[in-house]
Amino acid sequence: MERRTRLLAAAAITLAQLADVLTPLGEIFAAKGHELYLVGGTVRDAVLGRLGEDLDFTTDAHPEQVQSLLRGWADNQWDTGIAFGTISAAKGEHQIEITTFRTDSYDGVTRNPDVQYGTSIDEDLVRRDFTVNAMAVRIGVNGSQEFVDPLDGMSALLAGVLDTPAAPEISFNDDPLRMLRAARFVSQLGFTLAPRVHDAIVAMADQLDRITAERVRAELDKLILGAHPIDGIDVMCETGLAQRVLPELPAMKLEIDEHHQHKDVYQHSLTVLQQAIDLEDGDPDLILRWAALLHDIGKPDTKRNEPGGGVSFHHHEVVGAKMVRRRMRALKFPKQVIDDVGQLVFLHLRFHGYGKGQWTDSAVRRYVTDADDLLPRLHKLVRADCTTRNKRRAAALQGTYDDLERRIAALQEKEDLARVRPDLDGNAIMELLDIPAGPQVGKAWRFLKELRLDRGPLDRDEAEAELLKWWAANPE
Question: What's the whole-number mean pLDDT along residues 129-139?
Fold first, then answer.
């Protein structure tokens, strides 16, 4: 009881910081005889002391009435969610959503509800996904606030447990995306699933197939950007959700036999993810985290048992990069995200050819050029991929990568490695070879770029001499 009281007091202090929004908004609704409640994740986060700029409200006022009430107070308002009873608005730095009380029904085929307006806060809260998101604060006149918790979401929050207001089977049948949201909240909040929620997800995981790829991808991104993504990923794999949306993850749990020993690729990948997170600078890095988690997904398809008890995964980075691109395309990730994660997976193993520094300057240039603006992330991914428990070997690997970074820095002082270009541009090529614009110019340009990577910057006379020599041997 003492901790509950402290949290409520802390939430009141947090919400007091929003007085410039809550007080006038409460007055506006009360003046017209309407109820207004701060609700959902906004209340949950206020109790946890992590309130953001997005504020969710619910009210007995219908959408057209809400529009009228906000007119003249909000900086802007939108009706894009009006079909679901929601009016959105902006006030200063805050994004606001106000939704009419709802008592929805579902057809069991899609996750879109048949929207029906309700008449009370209690019936609105019982339709929500989890009890920790089913708490509300009534905003009254003069900035008054009343905590409303008919489903005892505070007890669930105190216990760090995700449970559903109604039976989980009903909740998940209404909206199967809630199962994936459960894993996402485990990642974001560090909570655990109530046993009945866990069991319902196991039994109903295949219902996630009703959800669009775009919705799934949005939840996966939120999950991997959470504070505890490994816990969320484990929930996905344990309950069968991952098998429906990202089957390459549980596939990494390779069987280990007594004759052919190898690391558990799944656990290794989770360790690499955590170590990559530890190397982040500032905000969570979506690209780095996906690359760290998926860098070895090509191993199951390339596993070979070798004579003498060894196991090999030849070219798993090539296979893995293709698998990453295929899966991320299926999940409707943006093209740039697909390209970046795929390229990091493709490049993550290249450093292991560095040995004890045997790479030529040409090889170093190609490493930097192929990574391009992903180089800082590639540095982190390669370092995170060292999970050996042998401290001497781990120190040697990190020291070798230190050496590579020093060589990159030294070359960058002499050359602009971030913009490796041929020493002659297209116009100079056409003038020297006396050819018009066309495919031959492109071939000559690529030859000069390869030459630049191999030998570093050339003066103009050298570049022209090399180009003329190449042209004489390759006139077509």
Answer: 95
